[in-house]
Amino acid sequence: MVGHLIGFIQLLRQAGIPVSTGEMLDLLQALSLLEPTRKNLLLAMQATLIKETGQERILEKLFDLYWTTLKQKTRKQEQPTNKTAIPIHPPRLSREEFNARLAQMKEWLRQALKSEDDLPAGGGEPAGQGGGKGNGPEQGRRERHFQHGSTVPLAAAGQRLAMIIAKDSEEDLKALAREAVFTLVPPAEDTPGEDPRQMLKQLKTHLDWAQVKDWLERSPLGGAEKLRQQKNLLRLERLLNRELEQLRCKRQPEKELPAIAREANLSQRCFAELDPEQVIQVKRQVARLGRRLATRAGYRRIPATRGAVDISRTVRLAATIGGVPIILCHQGRQATRPDLVVLCDLSGSVAPYSQFMMLLVHTMQNKFRMVRSYAFVDAIAEVTVQLRELDLERTVRNIQRQTGIWRTGFSDYGAVWHQFFHEHLHVLHRKVTLIILGDARNNYKPSGEEYFREICRRVRQVIWLNPTPQESWNQEDSIMHLYTPYCRHVFECRNLSQLTRIARQIF
């Protein structure tokens, strides 16, 4: 039992839930006081291991997958030792699998009858079609998505999905998720693993997800009813993910369980890959980080009569007296509130990352004496006032629409540096820290390096945060190598873990 608990604790740590040795001892002590049941084990873990909002759902998901997989593995290892232990009758299907197969057979019959009704009286193919299968590229696309099982017409699938999310029935949502996964994903355990995102995309295509979502947004339903159905759609997406995760663990438990745990670790997930619910959780953690950093005093070095040796001042003084450092100069620390200027790229590829940086700066405003925020795409505009609003996502959309930074829709760093140099250079001085968040993809336009060099020369330090992988910085239209020499620090910043580490280092 202890070995299984240690394996599960390792999964929790991979999922971003820190578990100390003391907490594990608390868990063992709690289990010694409870009856050894699965429910009590889960309750003990929730009481001793969960510390933050959002961790409970991750714990419950991994708990269900881990112990179910362990139970299935134990069953496989238990082989019958004599003939009397071998069942005479074959095992029966579960209710869920039986209903899924029954629905599949009904759909086959319905499609077969419909095909016969569409045929002309003399037999052969329907009018206007040849003897081949399919209907051009669309049919080919559908056949690639439907690996096996029925091919439900898009209209029928969309109507069924719309009916189920309107009914607000958890059982119907679960049944639809099971049926979709069983119909489209091969059940064989030796099937090679696929990308989970691609599998989910195939399921959504099968269910006409995009069409139903678009219909729901444009429907004349009331606000409360529309919100209820949108929540049901999100619930169905979670159920689809859960069914896929269970299937992955059934196929390759040793490989897929750690992979699912890593996928649940929000601190390692790329900002652009977060779903709406995960975005809310990450924003909460970013705001908490900002408040924590805002209470930490900032310091700068000043001349002092004692303390650490100031090497640069000592060497300069020694140069005036023959080069021998006879007199040592010292430096001390003085609390200060620096000035901060932030430039965020809001083009389509970088906007998901910029809103988290803006949230961090907004939360930390009290730490700085002066904060000026700018947004740019192919033009630049100051957005300091707009960022004081609480709804940052709506603020970002309003900035893109109302400030005029979106002219052609493509990033133009050269034009941005030119405009900033001529219109906003007065905000820069030697006490300013300039932070730039952008991917430096310039769409093969002039770099404006001469303007960027002058901008960097006027500030205390320049810190560039690039949300793209470091190996792609100098590929294709990326000109990161032209700007790097003028920056004190250049960091890759694409997830919460990297943002936390960078913020603690520079603030």
Automatic annotation (TrEMBL):
<dbReference type="InterPro" id="IPR011195">
    <property type="entry name" value="UCP010256"/>
</dbReference>
<dbReference type="Pfam" id="PF05762">
    <property type="entry name" value="VWA_CoxE"/>
</dbReference>
<feature type="region of interest" description="Disordered">
    <location>
        <begin position="116"/>
        <end position="147"/>
    </location>
</feature>
<feature type="compositionally biased region" description="Gly residues">
    <location>
        <begin position="121"/>
        <end position="137"/>
    </location>
</feature>
<dbReference type="InterPro" id="IPR008912">
    <property type="entry name" value="Uncharacterised_CoxE"/>
</dbReference>
<protein>
    <submittedName>
        <fullName>VWA domain-containing protein</fullName>
    </submittedName>
</protein>
